[in-house]
Amino acid sequence: MHFKNIPLYSLALILTLSSCSGKKEEEEKTVYENTKFTKNNENTVHLTEKQIQSVGLTTTTVQDRNMEKLMKLNGKAEIAPSHISLVSSIMGGHIKSINVINGSHFSKGQVLAVVEDPQFIQLQQDYLVTKAQLEAARLNFNRQKDLNTSKASSDKTMQTAQAEYSTLNATLKGLEEKLRIIGINAKGLSTGNIRSKINIYAPFTGFVSKILVSNGQYINPADTLFELINPSGLLLELKVFENDVNDVKVGQEILVYNNQNPGVKSNARIISVVPSIENGGSATAVARLSSVNTEFVKGMYVNAEVNISSRYTMGLPNEAVVSFENKNYVFEDLGKSGYKMIPVAVGISDDQFTEILKADVLKDKKIVQKGAYSLLMMLKNKAE
Q1: Which residues contact 86 (CB under 8 A, 6 or more apart)?
Q2: Which of 278, 255, 276, 259 is nearest to 267 (CA)?
Q3: Contact, 319 vs 372, CB < 8 A?
Q4: Which of 24, 29, 200, 202 has the maximal Cβ count within 10 Å?
Q5: How far, in Å, CA of 185 to CA of 92, rounded?
Q6: What is the pLDDT of residue 316?
Q7: Sheet holding 105-106: strands in order across?
Q8: Would you list the DSSP string of 214-226?
């Protein structure tokens, strides 16, 4: 190209415009290429050799295996209302002694307390007097019956004697039942063993939950003395998330343990599932221990493990599956230190593996196992 006929200022202008135009095209090309790179690589991360060694990346492949869904639940131990008893005295009186303390264990028939009152004496006297009167009435009735047979006595006299005998017999039976209720054996009662005290006996074997009286206190028949717990009525109320409700069935065997001793697990069985979702998005499943275990007490927080189902399926080790914003992903090893994040749908999981639904797309691919979470964090930071 020849510039001899072009004025000097024109040549300078041409060179300047040419330079600006080239710079603009170059910038536009760079912006386009950067945009294209970001779009195509938003799910891909590249590591240096040093980063790979630092993270300790390992890979695996999808595997066929027999898997069970292990569901973990938590809740509290409670006592069925039918196994909580409020104990009172049939008759009023003063508390003479209390033989248990809060939390103490007792056996069926054990004396929990002693109540004293003069009315107990009166009731026994009435019984013995009525018993004597009944014997006299019986003899009189038999005599009148014999006299009436020989017409030496009128029918009216015999009927009066019969009525008196029947009345006293009914009265005696009633007094005998009252004595039985307060723990006195009427058959063995005599004038030599009348007593002013009665015992309050334990109706079953269990634990004392509350003591509501004190020594010397006067109680009425309506007053509660003790709240007793029968441990055979222990129930486990477990929370089940809405997504898992249909997997929990009555009759399922579960393993339960408490936070104080998580290594020791006890057998239990689901006996009820409440058909209602609460505000927290969960339902309640009720379980009962297979045998009485004193390590579980009312109000204790408990955990449970439920094996829901078993099937032959395809899965990956748990650490190969990562979650972000309620979605699940795995990382494919692309080679040359490149790793691509792939969304996956998961199914059941156990202590080691997670089921991958439609896992055929991952067949023959190298999937990152150890280090998948580190890749997720790197990709997230890259996006930010």
Answers
A1: 224, 226, 227, 228
A2: 255
A3: yes
A4: 200
A5: 19
A6: 93
A7: 84-88, 224-229, 206-211, 105-106
A8: -TT-EE-TT-EEE
CB within 8 A of 18, min separation 6: which ones? Answer: none
Cβ neighbors of 37 (< 8 A, separation 6 or more) are none
CB burial of 343-374 (b: ≥16 within 10 Å; e: otherwise) equals ebebbbbbeebbbbeebeebeeeebbbebbbb
Structure tokens at 364: 């023959």
Q: End-to-end distance of the chain based on CA atoms, in angstroms?
A: 51
Q: What is the pLDDT of residues 89-102, one digit of tens each?
A: 999 999 999 999 99
- For residue 31, pLDDT beyond 70: no
* Per-residue pLDDT at 30 exceeds 50: no
Residue 337 structure tokens:
């230190």
Placement of tokens 């009485």 in the chain:
292
Helix 118-149, helix 155-181: angle, nearest 10: 150
Q: Give 297-321 pLDDT, tens digit per residue.
A: 888 999 999 887 677 889 999 999 9
Q: Is the pLDDT of residue 359 over 50?
A: yes
Per-residue pLDDT tens for 114-125?
999 999 999 999
Whether the per-residue pLDDT at 346 is higher than 90: the answer is no
Query: Which pLDDT score is estimated for 33?
Result: 32
> Quick one: how far is CA 103 from the chain centroid?
22
Per the DSSP assignment, residues forming a β-bridge with 106 are 206
Hey, is 99 helix, strand or coil?
A: coil
Structure tokens belonging to residue 203: 């109706």
Amino acid occupying residue 358: K
Burial of 38 (0-12, 13-18, 19+ CB in 10 A): exposed
Kindly state the tokens that stand for 201: 């006996």
Helices (H), the chain: 8-40, 49-55, 118-149, 155-181, 372-383
CA proximity to 295, closest of 355, 231, 250: 231
Q: Are 262 and 72 in contact (CB under 8 A)?
A: no
Task: Say whether pTM exceeds 0.70.
Answer: no
